[in-house]
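Let's sit down with a protein and look at its sequence and fold side by side. We need material for that, and I hope you will provide a protein of your own picking. Once you have written the record down, we can walk along the chain together.

***
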Amino acid sequence: MDRRHLFRTGLAAAGLSALPTLVRADAPIIPIRVNAPDVFRTTVCLRPFRAAGPRIETEVVGRKIVVHNYGHGGSGWSLSWGSAEAAVKLAMQSSPEKIAVIGAGALGLTAAITAQRAGADVTIYARERFPFVRSARATGSWTPDSRIAKTAAVDAGFADRWERMARTSLVLHRGFVGLGGNPVEWMDQYVLRKPPAPELAPSSLPPAVEPEDPGFVYLEDRLRDVVPRFHAYTGVHPFNAGEIRRGTIMTFNVASYCHQLESDFLAAGGRFEAMEFHTPSDLSRLKEKVVVNCTGYGARALFRDESITPVRGQIVWLVPQADVHYGLYISGLLVLARRDGIVVQATGGEMSGWNDDNETPDSIAAQAALDRLKSIYA
């Protein structure tokens, strides 16, 4: 689900879930410290969007059987395990003893581990590993239909395939909750709405402008039995907002999650080999006959796949802060106070970053996001 769509629909999500509302004593909500010395980096990630959805299919390239597993838009981490299951099922059809995976990001690591569990000897070939892969720059929330496809471009079976991937991924992600380093955990999320400006009379307010509808597929209703509910929050809080709703979301502390996946892969006998691929013919250098292609946005150049549209996203990272562990969203700004850093992302509109392959950080936009975050606290 698109992050902006998630929080917009989250306002009404109380009717989407059969999960019970937990009664609990609320800990104080500590304001996030927003000072220049606390900013330790600004990153840009290009999400590989395909209007028809992820490419999970087999192609013969020379003497290699290539199973493609890329093009997940903003849902790469979220759908990684379910996508891996579908791709590895295709890769194992010829019962190979050895499988090559190219790409060491979220999709590559989960595909490699899934192939190991299916009985294959697996080597990951990649130019870069964590923390230099694009997956390391992800926002880190479970959003399985975030810019995943366009309604007009998907086939009739897409929704069912997506649901299988989403549910499979959710089950596998849950298996990491509670592990040391908190690779995956649940986090409180606050959705804020500011009151109208007091100096403006209702008649003087400008007319509402309908945002452009990009036609993305939204399928979260299919997960209504596993989506925790959002509800009105009336407790003590530090937010400058007229309405607050709270829910619980699954989040990924990407640093510890990547390390956990790499450790699991190596412990099962996996190997990493540094290798760079420029054309499909470069796959002939691999000794394995079956290759799972998990190169993400890199597949656009490697396989000349012009169906991939880059969607640029920028994150300003604040150092982790003790006792600050929650997320918030207010129109145009998403914040996740993760264990491995506090994510501050100016989300813009649905089409923000569309077809923009510039990976250079924008310092002006970064400062604007931080200023916006400061203004949220009363």
Summary: The two ends are 30 Å apart (CA to CA).
